[in-house]
Task: structure prediction
Amino acid sequence: MKISLYSRFEMPAQAELAWAELLQGSAESGDLAAIYPPGFPQQSSIPVASLGLVSGDSLLAAALLEWGASDALVEGLAGHLHRTLGVAEAVTQDCLAALQRGCAVLAIQCPTGRLGEYEISEILHQHHGKCFGRSGNYGKPNAAK
Result:
């Protein structure tokens, strides 16, 4: 069973470094999603109103882009992610709080490639990531509520 780790980075550039190291370590891009604060110079991200810049090929990144395209209010994001992916509302609220403070957020589904939860946690920690959530439903569309 795959689980997901959610980590915030006080310095968004550290999230970029962690992202690069995860990919170097064989993480699959479809298992990664990143949200950067608005205005962060991240070239491969897509702006999402009321949220920030979204990167990644994962189901979470797709759900965030879908939500952004709907012009929904930010208050509805937690419900959308819970309905589509089973992400706990508390995780979404912590994510939004981190973004409001100017942090970046990475969500990683693991295991990915040759990396397990321990190796991923070590990479996140090395780049000053603070884990704020862990779930077993992320990546499973229409997860049980």
Summary: The radius of gyration is 14 Å.
